[in-house]
């Protein structure tokens, strides 16, 4: 059952009117009859008159919530034949001070002793293998816990908010520490994680504010998200060579952390994993060489030259944000993506070397690097994100290759030059040059027809305009010539169709219109032509088209001027 749901149910059940399966005597004591084997679920739920209970050895099962809310119950001896302390069995027994388990119990189920706020110590027998979800959550007076030698799993929230817990040893049998297992154990000063443990869950030790020493076992592979977040007294951490993953914000807000050893076996480091992300000083010992790696918030303080570990392919969002001691950055050839805000706010950075494999520079990637003076974008880069170099007001030399396909909004806004360039309405940069280095005195021009910002030299631009104009004039002349030829051919076809057979030599502005009037002449008979008028020869406006149809009397055709020299064409 989900622990949060179980907790909610427990709190609701605590408000149920109490009942007593067996009524306590005047002293508040109940003696379970001999030969009883089972105590039903909720048998003494909220029975506030119960002060003590005596079980016979015959009892082998006690139902869930059986003693929940028995706020005056002070001592419990779990029957020897019971093998499981069921869910919420003693939930909210706020005066329970002593619990003895001597039998064959293998499981402490979820919420079994939750909010037993007077319980100060607990001894688990060697038979216990599983400590369930929230088994001791909210036991604020619990100071000492003795784990048996066979515990395999410490469940989520098992000891969460046990504010007094300071003394316990995790046995070698434990393989996994669940999420929030010891969260907010604010008196815990040291922890020794055995070699048997392979993973530490999310929030497992977060908010343990006096935890100053952590020894991690040799076989741990995963440190979960927020696992040591806000451990403000933690000073030194050494990750064993077995570690492969450090989760998001694993050591975030560890404000006293002075050094950390990170082995090259680490393959993934989550977002904001180290306190450098929040402006705290942190040194680094060792080397990170993740073969499949993503780097996020790796330790960077007290380093003036930052060399990203080899084989890292992605620098995640906010990886080195506000690392204000870094003066130069060398990004290895394996890196393909520089995430959003990866180096934002590195105010002391003066130079960055981006090798020719990076394809994407994220939004705000170098924003606020106010001392960055020179930038060379390699040909591999295709995308420069929004505000990626925003407010880099010392940046006076920028090289951007032709291969860049997209530059985001205000990517270079705040550069110190006087001129301003735009692309698709977005301000790019005050000082920009492709492919040679420009300074503030240079104002290179860009073609507005090219969406990829291909630069055009001013002199070459003028030559290109002249060549384009000549091409336009030539193509226009060719088009007019071809159009007149088409008109002339049209005139000849229409004249042939109307059987125009003669030209009046004296007529300069008109031609006769002849029509065959013998519609049904016998075979071989000569056609009988009759003159029905003359057609005036007038220039044809471009907007009109030549009309061709069957001719009736009194038809006048407007044709373009026709000459014998054109007819020869």
Kindly name the structural category: mainly beta
By CATH, the superfamily of the domain at 198-297 comes out as Ribonuclease Inhibitor
Please give the CATH architecture of the domain at 198-297: Alpha-Beta Horseshoe
Helix content: under 10%
- Approximate strand percentage: 15-25%
N/C terminus separation: 97 Å
Could you tell me the mean pLDDT?
75
Shape annotation: elongated
Q: Count the strands? A: 37
Number of H/I helices: 3
Please compute the radius of gyration using only Cα atoms. 45 Å
Specify the biggest β-sheet.
9 strands, parallel
CATH class of the domain at 198-297: Alpha Beta
Widest beta sheet: strand line-up: 6-8-10-12-13-15-17-19-21
CATH-assigned fold name of the domain at 198-297: Leucine-rich repeat, LRR (right-handed beta-alpha superhelix)
- Low-confidence segments, given as residue ranges, are 11-17, 276-302, 417-459, 499-508, 537-569
Please tag this protein with its features.
mainly beta, 3 helices, Leucine-rich repeat, LRR (right-handed beta-alpha superhelix), 569 residues, 37 strands
């Amino acid at each position: 059952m989900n622990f949060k749901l179980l907790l909610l149910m427990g709190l609701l059940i605590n408000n149920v009117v109490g009942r007593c399966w067996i009524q306590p005597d005047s002293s508040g004591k109940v003696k379970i009859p001999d030969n009883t084997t089972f105590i039903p679920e909720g048998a003494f739920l909220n029975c506030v008159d119960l002060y003590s209970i005596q079980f016979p050895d015959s009892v082998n099962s006690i139902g869930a919530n059986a003693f929940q809310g028995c706020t005056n119950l002070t001592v419990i001896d779990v029957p020897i034949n019971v093998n499981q302390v069921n869910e919420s069995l003693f939930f909210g027994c706020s005066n329970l001070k002593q619990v003895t388990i001597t039998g064959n119990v293998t499981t402490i189920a979820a919420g079994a002793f939750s909010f037993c706020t007077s319980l100060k110590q607990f001894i688990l027998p060697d038979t216990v293998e599983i400590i369930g979800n929230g088994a001791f959550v909210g036991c604020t007076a619990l100071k000492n816990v003795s784990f048996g030698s066979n515990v395999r799993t410490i469940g989520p929230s098992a000891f969460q908010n046990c504010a007094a817990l300071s003394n316990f040893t995790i046995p070698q049998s434990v393989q996994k520490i669940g999420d929030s297992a010891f969260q907010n154990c604010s008196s815990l000063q040291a922890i020794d994680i055995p070699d048997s443990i392979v993973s530490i869950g999310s929030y497992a030790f977060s908010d343990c504010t006096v935890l100053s020493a952590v020894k991690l076992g040799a076989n741990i592979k995963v440190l979960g998200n927020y696992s040591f977040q806000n451990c403000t007294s933690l000073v030194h951490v050494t990750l064993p060579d077995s570690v492969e993953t450090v989760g998001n914000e694993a050591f975030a807000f560890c404000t006293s952390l002075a050094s950390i050893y990170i082995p090259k076996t680490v393959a993934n480091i989550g977002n904001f994993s180290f306190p450098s992300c929040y402006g705290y000083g942190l040194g680094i010992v060792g080397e990170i060489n993740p073969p499949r790696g993503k780097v996020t918030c790796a330790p960077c303080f007290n380093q003036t030259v930052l060399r990203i570990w080899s084989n890292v392919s992605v620098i995640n969002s906010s990886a080195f944000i506000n690392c204000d001691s870094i003066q130069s950055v060398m990004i290895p050839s394996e890196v393909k993506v520089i995430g959003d805000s990866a180096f934002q706010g590195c105010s002391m950075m003066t130079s960055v070397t981006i090798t020719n494999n990076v394809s994407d520079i994220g939004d705000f990637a170098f924003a606020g690097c106010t001392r960055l003076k020179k930038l060379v974008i390699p040909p591999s880069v295709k995308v420069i994100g929004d505000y990626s170099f925003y407010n880099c007001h010392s940046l006076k030399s920028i090289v951007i290759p032709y291969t860049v396909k997209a530059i985001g909004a205000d990517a270079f806004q705040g550069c110190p030059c006087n001129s301003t360039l735009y692309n698709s309405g977005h301000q790019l940069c005050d000082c920009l040059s492709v492919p040679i280095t420009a300074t503030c005195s240079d104002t290179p021009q860009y073609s507005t027809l090219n969406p990829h910002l291909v630069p055009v030299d001013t002199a070459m631009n003028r030559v290109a305009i002249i060549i384009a104009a000549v091409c336009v004039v030539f193509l226009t002349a060719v088009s007019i010539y071809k159009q007149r030829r088409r008109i002339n051919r049209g005139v000849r076809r229409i004249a042939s169709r109307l059987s125009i057979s003669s030209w009046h030599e004296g007529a300069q502005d008109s031609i006769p219109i002849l029509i065959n009037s013998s519609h049904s002449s016998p075979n071989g008979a000569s056609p009988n032509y009759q003159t029905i008028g003359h057609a005036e020869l007038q220039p044809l406006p471009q907007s009109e088209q030549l009309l061709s149809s069957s001719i009736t009397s009194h038809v006048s055709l407007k044709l373009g001027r026709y000459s014998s020299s054109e007819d020869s064409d």
